[in-house]
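Demo today. Your pick:
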Amino acid sequence: MERQRVSDDALGVGVADTPGGLSVIRHPACPAVLWRRAPRAGFQRWIDDLDPALLPRARVVLPPGETGAFLADLAVRCGMPPGVERDWLVQDIASMAKRFAELVPAPYQRLRLDVVQTNSCRRFHIDAVTARLVCTYRGTGTQYGMSTDGHDPETIFTVPTGAPILLRGKLWPTDPPSGLRHRSPPIEGTGETRLILVLDPMSEPEEEI
């Protein structure tokens, strides 16, 4: 049995203890679900200490089943040091792409790996997609909160580093968008480097999102 719940103290955001628990996103009152997990032992220190120039960057559209092979090649091309940590990162992203495709079926996914050192997308918003999966492997995680009047949320929550969050977008088919909005944390001037994975469903290989 998968452990999952809708957390009233976190604006209806679901909390899953296993990847299977991400299916709580289908709950009518659940605008997002967070997979609460700790980073793999040794991985966080490895990725945090890595030269930012060696972090993988990508923006590609491909079938979910091709994610692992693409990432394995990307890791070599960007110069990431070989080892169990690099292998784990590749396998983890490939596994998340597969899980995301099961929850939000689509023949293609847009995969983005962004290395961020500025205030990228710092405004609170709802994405113009069916759903989006975001995981911050290095640096401060995605921030979210409830907006009832169109202004920034008064209370802001931060997703833990390494914890994936699945967010409904404006095109979610059965329920109107909630007031839950999210943003990238403002980090400009702090010297911080973030590594972020974003997955979006796509029906066509060249569809714009």
User: Anything to note?
Assistant: The longest strand covers residues 108-116. Confidence is low (pLDDT under 50) at residues 1-10.
